[in-house]
Every structure is written in structure tokens, then in C-alpha cells.
Design brief:
The chain is mainly alpha-helical and 140 residues long. It is built from five helices and four strands, in the order βααββαβαα. It has one domain. Helix content is 59%, strand content 10%. Strands 1-4 form a two-stranded antiparallel sheet. A hairpin with a 2-residue loop joins strand 2 and strand 3. The model has no long low-confidence stretch (mean pLDDT 95).
Length: 140
Amino acid sequence: MRIKIRNDKLQPVIHFMEGLELKPSLSRARTRFVSMLRPHLDVFLEADKNLVESYAVKDDKGHVILENGVFDLIKETAREFHEERKRLYLEIAEIEGGTYTTHLEDLKKILDELDIPLSGSNAEAYDILCDAVDESLKGG
């Protein structure tokens, strides 16, 4: 199984999947899938943190200065930061492997049989997953 999801969509997809109420066998498929996504999310978040630490204004001890959770960028390198961050966010995480032979088909079943109203970020996460699973089933 190989599923491709953009870095900046990993968190919403995980949140969406974790919020679904599923029958036990499909819940197990979901749990295993989410456990495959988490390491990719961790790598993305760490890379984002490192990027901020490289380009943000720091205090005399070398710590990023945060005011109400907001950091300022070093003016001379702000453009570079935004370019690098955009590239990081748009990178595609490739989730490879599988925990059993019908895992991908079970994910497709979860999505196909879902019978709940969706809106906002959940609707977007659903759409992202449908596209990723369909692409994977086609061999992409």
C-alpha cells in the first residue's frame, strides 16, 4: 500500500479519522492507518519547528521570542523562510507499507460506507483521503 498526502493535510486527516465511529474491524484498519501517518506528521512538525528556529528572532540565550504564540522573523531572511515553509507544507508524504493484505480495501470501505454529514475541515480531509486511496488503488 502506498498513499500520498500533502504534509499540511496530515493533521486534519488524522483528526478526521480519529473522530469516526466505526465497527471493530474497520476501527482496527483506521487505527493502523493513523499509526502509519503519525511518524510522517512528527517529521513534518519537527521540520517546521526547525525552520522557525532558523529564521525567527531570538533572545540573547538563543530561544525564539514568542509573544502570544507569535514569532517575528529576521527581516533579511523572511522571504526565504516563507519560500522554505511553503515548500515544506506542500511536500508529499508517502505512506508506504501496510499492516495486512486488505488494508487499503478496508480504508476504501470506511470512506465509501461513511454515512455522516461532513463540512469544513472534515469534508476536506474526507476528500483528500478519497483521492489518496483511489490513486493508490490505481497503482499511483
